[in-house]
Input
Amino acid sequence: HVFQTPEAINLVLEPGI
Output
């Protein structure tokens, strides 16, 4: 991922949302 945004991180932490 080139973009380190809180939203992207959230997706990585919870790959179910």
User: Anything to note?
Assistant: The chain has one helix and no strands.
